[in-house]
Amino acid sequence: MYSVTMIVALAAITVGFPQSTERPEAFPLLSRIETRDEVGQYVLQYQVADGTVVSEQGILKLTPDMTDNVLVKQGSYKYTSPEGVPIEVTYTADELGFQPRSSAIPVQLPVPEPVFT
């Protein structure tokens, strides 16, 4: 009985939400450049009519033990926030993970050590 009640409740909730089939308006692509080489390295750049600009490159880097390669990505993207603020982020993605840099990214300050007197 409990499972029937839950199914009916979920169905009622789903029916109550407006079902939109409209997709958000997409901005036209102004330019796009993509080049790749035979080993998988690449350069990708594109610009959208809303002012968004993306630039990324992937370069193979030899692993420390020199037995393999890892693809290191470096790039940037720029856009305007919904509040009208220009945002720019540069990043590297490598064996240390994704490392973004931007004045728009909050920085956590170190917690001071407690002082006992």
From TrEMBL:
Residues 1-16 form the signal peptide. Keywords: Cuticle, Signal. The keyword Transferase does not apply. It comes from the Eukaryota. One of its GO terms (cellular component) is chitin-based extracellular matrix. GO terms for molecular function: structural constituent of chitin-based larval cuticle. This is Putative cuticular protein.
